[in-house]
Specification:
The complex is a heterodimer of chains A (153) and B (325).
Chain A: H1 3-27, E1 47-51, E2 54-58, H2 61-71, E3 77-81, E4 88-90, E5 95-98, E6 111-114, H3 117-126, E7 130-132
Antiparallel strand pairs in A: 1-2, 1-3, 3-4, 5-6, 5-7
Chain B: H1 3-34, H2 42-74, H3 84-88, H4 101-128, H5 139-164, H6 193-211, H7 217-247, H8 255-261, H9 265-288, H10 294-324
Helix pairs in contact in B: 1-2, 1-5, 2-4, 2-5, 4-5, 4-9, 4-10, 6-7, 7-8, 7-9, 7-10, 9-10
Classes of the chains: A alpha+beta (153), B mainly alpha (325).
């Protein structure tokens, strides 16, 4: 390779190494995505799982359950999104309904979380759903309730 | 029509026009070569054919990029589509023209890269033809030019048809890597150390072929096999090791999502493909061209440089991408 060719190659390699840093600086931080399947979290019924001081976000209850099943994580703190108000609710206090309505179209998940039992029952009745309890209830046995939470169970 | 779609149609039109002209010129050349009494004035057309084949090669690369941008741009149209792989499945199970969308998308996905390989090789062979300016090119070279022309028309037609067909209605397009009947990408075993070792061995073999065994059947075979290994193992590492890290999605391994989130990854993918493209184009220049000469040597030197850039640049790029995350 000639001297000019070597110089060109070195320049291109330097530009190649610099490109990700430049692109990242121009683009800003990446948009939040589900830790399991990469679905953008904007507008999704976000589920947050906290384990060992690390918080991960998921696009639906199904993905959070899959994460816990895959990683074999121990007791964790799980916060779900109330389908009625959009507020964050501790999973230990939430009511879950599986209905005909898709909670997350990208994954096909149909489990909805509610802060109030009346809202859950209303949704179940309106959309031919069923209240999940016992073994059916998501995160059963893996959820650590926040201090001061009033358990529904 | 959105800007990426307009851009893609524009490239498709150029591809169709240049491809038709190229196929016509090559067909006339082939016919003249078969009938000694009717000489085709090839010498006066050589420059024009070179222009056409380079135009097709450049447009194939640009159309490939525009196709990716177009698919990414369409992702938000469907709530059940996660990334551009989901857009490729739009229309599955639908009746009528909409039902043909997946087949057209698949055809475009195959034809555009194939066209890039073929047009690049034909351009290299045609440029090497400068070493023998007198007389028409070899029949194999003319046939390759004809194939490039036909491929360009086919790629342009499939891409334009996909863009033109309405995509309204319900589709079985859910998921990005999760079509029914296929193994979930997230659930498939991730690339273990095997892919890393495969990539390292392929890179070492390619470097050895590049520096020690200049030409010849054995050297070319080693380079071709190792370049294919670099692309194969590199793509696996990109999906399984780079994408989850950059995207912050430990269980989701999708290079296309990475492309959507970090478009500069397209350069990294091009670097992974560079050794294979340079090897194939070099083989085409030697096999279809006059076989020797200073222009051929110059082309091979440039292609060696492209291969070296890919060999060194790809790991450098992806290491930088991880560091930047």
């Amino acid at each position: 390779m000639t001297g000019r060719g070597t110089l060109l190659l070195a320049g291109l390699l330097a530009a190649t190494a610099a490109l990700p840093f430049g692109a990242r600086a121009l683009r800003g931080p990446p948009s939040p995505r589900c830790a399991v399947d990469g679905v953008p979290l904007a507008g999704a019924p976000v589920v947050r799982v906290e384990e060992g001081g690390v918080e991960r976000s998921f696009c639906c209850v199904g993905c959070a359950e899959r994460w816990l099943a895959t990683t074999g994580a121990g007791p964790v703190r799980v916060v779900v999104t109330d389908s009625s108000t959009g507020a964050a609710v501790d999973a230990g206090c939430a009511w879950f309904v599986r209905s005909t309505v898709l909670a997350q179209p990208a994954t096909g998940d149909r489990v909805h979380a509610f802060a109030r039992k009346e809202d859950a029952l209303r949704h179940a009745e309106a959309y031919r759903g069923s209240l999940l309890s016992g073994k059916e209830s998501p995160f059963g046995g893996k959820v650590v309730r926040q201090e001061g939470d009033q358990s529904r169970r | 029509m959105a800007a990426p779609a307009i851009l893609a149609v524009l490239f498709a039109l150029v591809l169709a026009g240049a491809g038709s002209a190229l196929a016509f010129a090559a067909a006339r050349g082939l016919r003249a070569a078969g009938r000694a009494d009717r000489a085709f004035p090839w010498e006066s057309h050589r420059g024009l054919v070179m222009l056409l084949v380079v135009l097709v090669a450049v447009c194939a690369a640009a159309a490939l990029l525009a196709w990716g941008v177009l698919l990414q741009d369409l992702v938000p149209q469907w709530a059940d589509v996660r990334c551009l792989v989901g857009v490729l499945r739009v229309g599955t199970g639908s009746a009528g023209a909409t039902g043909r969308l997946p087949a057209l998308a698949d055809a475009t996905d195959v034809l555009l890269p194939l066209l890039l390989v073929a047009a690049g090789g034909a351009a290299a062979a045609h440029a090497a033809g400068r070493d023998r300016p007198e007389g028409p090119p070899r029949r194999a070279h003319l046939s390759a030019l004809f194939v490039v022309g036909v491929l360009a028309i086919a790629a342009a037609a499939s891409m334009t048809a996909w863009i033109a067909i309405p995509k309204a209605g319900k589709h079985l397009s859910s998921g990005c890597c999760t079509p029914a009947g296929m193994v979930l990408v997230e659930e498939a075993a991730p690339a273990g150390t095997g892919a890393g070792i495969g990539y390292a061995v392929s890179s070492a073999a390619f470097a050895a072929g590049l520096f020690f065994s200049r030409r010849g059947v054995a050297g070319s075979g080693v380079r071709l096999a190792s370049a294919a290994g670099i692309l194969l193992f590199g793509s696996r590492l990109l999906s399984d090791r780079v994408a989850p890290f950059v995207l912050g999605t430990p269980l989701h391994r999708c290079a296309w999502c990475l492309l959507g989130e970090a478009p500069e990854t397209a350069w990294g993918m091009a670097l992974l493909a560079a050794p294979l493209l340079a090897t194939l184009w070099g083989l085409a220049a030697r096999g279809l061209g006059p076989g020797s000469g200073p222009t051929l040597e110059r082309i091979e030197r440039v292609l060696d440089g492209v291969a070296l850039l890919g060999l060194l640049g790809a790991p450098l790029f992806f290491a930088a991408e991880r560091l930047a995350s």
